[in-house]
Structures are given as structure tokens and as C-alpha cells.
Design a protein that fits this description.
The complex is a heterodimer of chains A (about 270) and B (about 300). Chain A is an all-alpha fold and about 270 residues long. Chain A has 15 helices and no strands. In chain A, helix 11 packs across helix 15. The chains are: A mainly alpha (about 270), B mainly alpha (about 300).
Chain lengths: ~270, ~300
């Protein structure tokens, strides 16, 4: 048993190092100068350490603004997704109405449509609304989220109906039942969905790329890709300093909440079981 | 309890007025999602179907085009390459990515202290795809600039291909990056699936004299097959939709080997402003996705084991 455990740990550690290597290399390279990378691309340590890569990256692009943009857009997306999808999930799980089954199938079917299929008409429509080059284009359409409805419906179905019936006998209306009985009982589901929605919004690139033009409106991933384009494939020290600025804070947030984040994503991957 | 049963019986006999009110409440609770889905998903999908049969550059008159957009795309060698690259990418990422994830999950399931490894493998999942692509650009770069090729050359005398520049190899490079960044998610999903397998079942098989390989084939794999099936469907769909890492890692404008259907949709729509062509390409992608998913659902009847 012992040697087998040891071999497994060795293999897993080797794999883990392979997972870690690109991050480590990003951090090391972010302190290197162009000359070092051209002369000796495989030297580990920066020589000399170019700390100025970081102020250079920060000064060249409005990263502070991009951080704020990404943050408030993600926060709004999470709030709107949680509220509206919990409401719809409640209707599907608890209210009997005509056409409920058909409507739910339609919800599931829309989930199959890749966003790239609808992006051109969506762009034309948002242009009509005057929402192109505005954060509204990243906030309002994101509300439509059949996956979230499906996930929360699973969680609501696991809440005993008796709780709600008791509340209704005490005179609570539908909204009270939803808000004060059901929602507090699906907190793990809301937490999981909140994390998933936050990450999806924070890391989203396709829609910002297409819908935004002004640099001061850019989100972090969009600004990062524009910065890399501008610098070309030469000055990797500064480009990776910018990447590190974009990535490290989210990695720290991940490390703090890792258990919860990983469990949420594993559970939702299993369909909320 | 008697009160509750009576309440339920009462609800079942609810007068018309109450049931109408239920309909109103359902409409109220569903309204935001239904409105958003209709406006931002269903309507654009309908509009995409109409556009696919039109010639339109966004400014002039829309002109009826019949099937000519589809015909133009399907006979365009560039689009053919894009379809082939999309399929190749799926054939590389899905089996290798899920196979590797399954191996790691099984290893994690049989060691103590798997939490630390879970975090390590999961890091790329929460990392922005743009940053991921930039990290890998430095590693995979050719012309004696990249870490990988320079190491291979100096230590082993191997002249490796220019992963990002060579049209024949770039799909492999994209597949490696895609597998690396989604591995952790598949690992934790498989791990969660493995943890639902009752230890008694495995123990019983062992008592009957089954070795590790036999246990894997006859116990683990069947019991995990619903999870594997679900992950395969999701992995195929997301590999068909891959865009971010490709766009940042190699601009397919410079390297045809990286063109995928999604990239064609983007280029036709937002660089060439041929909205009709772009929508036609998008619908071909949708049909391909649906077909592959249907085939998978048909295959699962024979391959996936559900209890009860």
C-alpha cells in the first residue's frame, strides 16, 4: 500500500507542477527585459530584474478603470441572474400552470444555442437600442440564463413542500413564500450559481470584444488583449506583467474561497445533484 | 400532519379563482427570464435564420439571397478548412482531455490529502482565457524564442515544429492549451462522481476476486458512465464554440490552420460586415452541434448505465 501511495503522490505532484508551470513562467518573465528573452529564452531568473515592467504596463493602459468596469459589471450580472433565475425556477418547481412542461422544455432547448450563433443579430439589435459601446450590452442580455433556471429548480425541488405549506397556512403569500421560505433554504445553490456567474462575467471576452470600442469602457480581458496586440509579440516582459496584474488578484480570491468554489462548480457540473 | 394533508386536499380542489391567481403568479415569477430569453436569445435566433437567406452589409438594402449564402460557404475551401479544424480540435480535446481528467480523478480518489492537488489542477479554470493564451504564447513561441522549443533543441537536439506558426501543428497547440485550461473542471466533476460510488460495491467486487483493472472496467466505469456522458456532451459543445484562446494565441488571419467555424462567423460578421454570410456560417455550426449531440444521445442508450 505504501509504495503505491507514494507513486500516486509523485505522479500527481508532477502533473500539478505542469499545471503550475505557465503561471510561474508568467511571473518570472514579467520581470525580464527584451534582451534577456532574445538571448536566452530558457533562463529561469530575470537578470537584471526589471521591476519597471509593472509601472510601464499600468501606465500604458487604464487597468484601474478596467478593474472597476469588470467588477461592477460582474456584480450586477450576479445580482440580476440570481434574482430572475430564482424567480423563474420557483415558478417551474412550485406553481402549477398550464404549459409549464412545454415552457420548461423550451428553456432547456434555448440553452443549446451557442452564443456565437446569435451574436450577429444580437449586435444589430443592440446597435438599434444604442447599447453598442455601452456596458448595458454586457449587463442586460446576460440576464437570459436558462442554465441558471435549471440549476436552481433542482435546488428548490429539494426543499420540503411542507415548509411552504406551513407558511401559507400562516397567511404568507406567494412572494413571501419565495423570499422568506424558499430562498433561505437554497443558499448553497445561490452561492454556487453566484460564483459561476461572477467568473463567467469576469473572464468573458467574446462579447466585450464585439460590443465595446472605447478604451475607458474595456473590461480586464479586453484591455489585456488590446495591450498585447499593441505591443506585438516582442515585449513579453511588459505583456506578462499586464497579464499578472489581470490574473493575480482573481487567483488570490480563488485561493481564499477555493473549497467552496470548486465544490460549487463540481456540483453544478453534475446537474445540481 | 393531518393539517398539512387537509391543506393539500384543499389545494387539489382549489376553486377556479385560486388557480387563475396561480397562473398570474407564474407569469409574474417567469416574466424577467422569459422576456430576456425572448428578446436576447429567441428573437436573435429567428433573425439569424432570416439573415442567413439575405445579402446585407448593414447599411444598404437587404436582398433575398435564397440558399446562396449557404452554398457559398459550403463550397468555399476556407470554410471547409474551418469545419475540418473545428472537428480536429474536438477530436483532440474531448478524448484526451476527458481521459486525462478521468485518470487524475481516479488517482485523487485513492490518495489522502487530495484537496491540495484539486486546487493546483483547478487554477487554470478560474483564470481569464486571454491571460492563459498569453502565458502559453511565450512557452510555445517558435523561432528560438519559446521556452519549449529552445529547451528541446538545447537539451535533446530536437528541432520541434513552430507550434503556433505551422498550419499543420497549430490545432495541436490550441488543443493542449484548451485541455490544460479545462482539465481541473473535468477532474472535480469526475471526482464528485467517483465519490458517489458506494465503497461496499467496490469491496464486494474485490472479495469476489476482481483485480484493479477488472474493478475499473466492470464497476467504476459503468457507475460513472452518466457523468462521463454528460461531460462528453458539454466538452464537445464547448470545443465547437472555442474562440478566446484561438483569437489571442494565434490570429487565424495569419494562420489558416487555426480557422474554426466560430472564427469564420466572427470574421465574416465583424471584419467583413457580411451579415448574411456570417449568419449562414453560424447556422451551419448550430446544425453541426445539434447533429453531434443527437448522435451522442443515441449512443448513450447502449453505452451509459443508469440504475433503477
Amino acid at each position: 500500500m505504501r509504495p503505491r501511495q507514494l507513486a500516486l503522490h509523485a505522479a500527481l505532484t508532477a502533473g500539478g507542477l505542469a499545471m503550475l508551470f505557465p503561471f510561474v513562467w508568467m511571473l518570472l518573465t514579467s520581470f525580464k527585459g527584451v534582451r534577456q528573452m532574445l538571448n536566452d529564452p530558457i533562463s529561469w531568473l530575470p537578470a537584471p530584474w526589471r521591476w519597471e515592467n509593472y509601472p510601464d504596463a499600468l501606465g500604458a493602459m487604464p487597468f484601474g478603470t478596467a478593474y472597476w468596469n469588470s467588477f461592477y459589471i460582474a456584480a450586477l450580472n450576479v445580482t440580476l441572474t440570481l434574482l430572475t433565475s430564482a424567480m423563474a425556477a420557483y415558478a417551474f418547481a412550485r406553481i402549477r400552470f398550464r404549459g409549464s412542461g412545454v415552457l420548461f422544455v423550451v428553456f432547456l432547448a434555448t440553452q443549446m444555442v451557442p452564443s456565437q450563433v446569435t451574436v450577429v443579430p444580437l449586435y444589430l439589435m443592440l446597435a438599434k437600442f444604442g447599447w453598442i459601446d455601452s456596458h448595458l450590452s454586457l449587463i442586460v442580455p446576460t440576464i437570459a440564463n436558462p442554465f441558471a433556471v435549471f440549476l436552481l429548480r433542482q435546488f428548490i425541488r429539494a426543499v420540503p413542500v411542507e415548509l411552504e405549506e406551513a407558511a401559507r397556512i400562516d397567511g404568507a403569500g406567494r412572494w413571501r413564500c419565495f423570499w422568506s421560505v424558499v430562498l433561505p433554504n437554497i443558499r448553497p445553490g445561490l452561492g454556487a450559481l453566484g460564483i459561476i456567474a461572477f467568473l463567467a462575467s469576469w473572464n468573458s471576452f467574446f462579447f466585450p470584444l464585439i460590443f465595446l470600442n472605447s478604451p475607458e469602457l474595456a473590461t480586464v480581458p479586453l484591455l489585456l488583449s488590446q495591450f498585447a496586440d499593441e505591443r506585438g509579440a516582442v515585449d513579453y516582459g511588459v505583456i506578462l506583467a499586464a497579464s499578472a496584474i489581470a490574473v493575480v488578484p482573481t487567483l488570490i480570491a480563488f485561493l481564499i474561497g477555493q473549497r467552496r468554489i470548486i465544490n460549487s462548480m463540481a456540483a453544478s457540473g453534475l446537474g445540481g445533484r | 400532519m393531518a393539517v398539512l394533508t387537509r391543506a393539500r386536499a384543499h389545494a387539489a380542489r382549489a376553486p377556479e379563482r385560486v388557480r387563475n391567481r396561480d397562473g398570474l403568479w407564474a407569469a409574474f415569477f417567469l416574466a424577467p427570464q422569459v422576456a430576456a430569453l425572448t428578446v436576447f436569445l429567441v428573437a436573435p435566433l429567428g433573425f439569424a435564420v432570416v439573415l442567413a437567406f439575405m445579402h446585407w452589409d448593414g447599411l444598404g438594402q437587404k436582398q433575398w439571397a435564397g440558399f446562396s449564402n449557404f452554398a457559398a460557404q459550403l463550397s468555399d475551401p476556407e470554410f471547409g478548412r474551418a469545419v475540418w479544424n473545428t472537428v480536429k480540435l474536438a477530436l483532440l480535446t474531448v478524448p484526451f482531455g476527458l481521459g486525462l481528467a478521468l485518470l487524475i480523478a481516479i488517482a485523487l480518489n485513492s490518495v489522502k490529502g487530495s484537496g491540495f492537488y484539486r486546487v493546483l489542477y483547478f487554477l487554470p479554470v478560474v483564470t481569464s482565457s486571454v491571460a492563459v493564451a498569453l502565458m502559453w504564447q511565450v512557452i510555445l513561441a517558435g523561432n528560438d524564442n519559446g521556452v519549449l522549443n529552445t529547451s528541446l533543441h538545447r537539451w535533446f537536439g530536437i528541432n520541434a515544429p513552430d507550434w503556433l506558426g505551422d498550419p499543420g501543428w497549430v490545432v495541436v497547440a490550441i488543443a493542449v492549451v484548451t485541455i490544460w485550461s479545462s482539465l481541473g473542471l473535468n477532474v472535480v466533476i469526475f471526482l464528485a462522481g467517483l465519490q458517489t460510488i458506494p465503497p461496499q460495491v467496490v469491496e464486494a467486487a474485490r472479495m469476489d476476486g476482481a483485480g484493479p483493472v477488472r474493478i475499473f472496467r466492470s464497476v467504476t466505469l459503468p457507475l460513472l458512465s452518466p457523468t462521463i456522458f454528460f461531460s462528453t456532451v458539454v466538452a464537445v459543445i464547448s470545443s465547437f464554440q472555442a474562440f478566446d484562446q484561438i483569437y489571442v494565441l494565434v490570429d487565424p488571419q495569419d494562420n489558416d490552420g487555426a480557422r474554426t467555424i466560430v472564427y469564420q462567423v466572427y470574421e465574416l460578421g465583424f471584419r467583413d460586415f457580411q451579415f448574411g454570410m456570417s449568419s449562414a456560417a453560424a447556422l451551419i455550426l448550430l446544425v453541426l452541434t445539434l447533429l453531434v449531440t443527437l448522435v451522442q444521445f443515441a449512443a448513450q442508450k447502449r453505452l451509459v448505465h443508469y440504475d433503477s
